[in-house]
Design a protein that fits this description.
It is a single chain. With about 325 residues, this protein is mainly α. Helix content is about 65%, strand content about 0%. It is built from 10 helices and no strands. It is a multi-pass membrane protein. This is Dicarboxylic acid transporter. Belongs to the mitochondrial carrier (TC 2.A.29) family.
Length: about 325
């Protein structure tokens, strides 16, 4: 048999467009740091009448939420439901913007950016973010509370701030720069609890739902995860809220002691006293939590869409 009749051994064709294994896929560009602040501002603007009513119920003699809402509309019109909203915006664009940014940076630091990140790392990242945001957002917190509660006071005791910046400047001028740090300790402690439970649990629940065959990365998944996150956050923050209210409202010798307050409440009411008021707290926090995360996810989709269109400014 001649050599010309022998078939040559078959060899696979040379790859033409195969990407070398050493070349990694391009890393996704991070979302703008201010996205969380914008989402929280939108959510807080929608729920502002409820938050305003809560503050006025605490500061006035009103007993029922509906009656307080009607009183506000009767005395100041529908616009009265949005009294002090500039303080709410200042608070969200300082505290919330900082906490979402710090949370993402903390996750990078702890190597917890993957969907399989353990819950303890997410919780630690949330705690770190809460501590930073609680410090940064404290002035905005004070301004928001003062603006919202002003009209519930007698006219002679009102601050009569025009807007959030007027409140900030007058506080520094009339009370000194140290006034911006009032209540910073309890505020930071609550921010640590809130962010460790709310932000971390949302990421955890979202990843868990997406790992099942029943959910895709859509509004149904985001709603379910945020609903669960709001419930966890309410439960985790409830003991701190109850103890803070008991200590602030108590009077008499030894009433300012946290240990004495706990012992008295345990003796009279049992261990479950730390969850008193859980239902109204849940009803207030739940819609805010859902709106924040639904809005944030839609803003992220908007950023992805604009980048796909070639607009790299975002």
């Amino acid at each position: 048999m001649s050599k010309s009749n022998v078939n040559p051994p078959l060899t696979p064709p040379a790859p033409t467009s195969q990407v070398p294994s050493s070349v990694a896929a391009p890393k996704k560009k991070p979302y703008p740091f201010w996205l969380g602040g914008v989402a929280a501002t939108i959510a807080a603007s929608i729920t502002h009448p409820l938050d305003l009513t809560k503050v006025r119920l605490q500061a006035s003699g009103d007993k029922r939420m509906l009656a307080s809402l009607q009183k506000t509309v009767r005395t100041a019109g529908v616009r009265g439901l949005f009294d002090g909203i500039s303080g709410t915006w200042m608070r969200q664009m300082s505290y919330s913007m900082c906490r979402f940014w710090a949370y993402e940076e903390s996750k990078k630091l702890l190597d917890a950016t993957s969907p399989s990140a353990p819950a303890w790392k997410l919780g630690l990242a949330g705690s770190m973010a809460g501590g930073i945001a609680g410090l940064v957002g404290n002035p905005g917190e004070i301004v928001m509370v003062r603006l919202q509660g002003d009209f519930a006071k007698p006219p002679e005791k009102r601050f009569n701030y025009k807007h959030c910046f007027d409140a900030l400047f007058r506080m520094v001028r009339e009370e000194g720069p140290s006034s911006l740090a009032r209540g910073v300790g309890p505020n930071v402690f609550r921010a640590v609890l809130m962010n460790a439970s709310q932000l971390a649990s949302y990421d955890f629940f979202k990843a868990t739902l997406l790992a099942t065959p029943y959910f895709d990365d859509n509004i149904y998944c985001h709603f379910t995860a945020s609903f669960a996150a709001g419930t966890v956050a309410t439960t985790v923050c409830s003991p701190a809220d109850v103890l803070k209210s008991r200590i602030m409202n108590a009077s008499g010798p030894g009433s300012s002691s946290t240990i004495a307050t706990i012992r008295t409440a345990l003796a009279n009411e049992g261990a479950l006293f730390v969850f008193k008021g859980w239902v109204p707290a849940w009803m207030r926090l739940q819609p805010t939590t859902i709106l924040i995360f639904l809005t944030l996810e839609q803003l992220k989709r908007g950023v992805d869409w604009t980048r796909a269109k070639g607009w790299e400014a975002l």
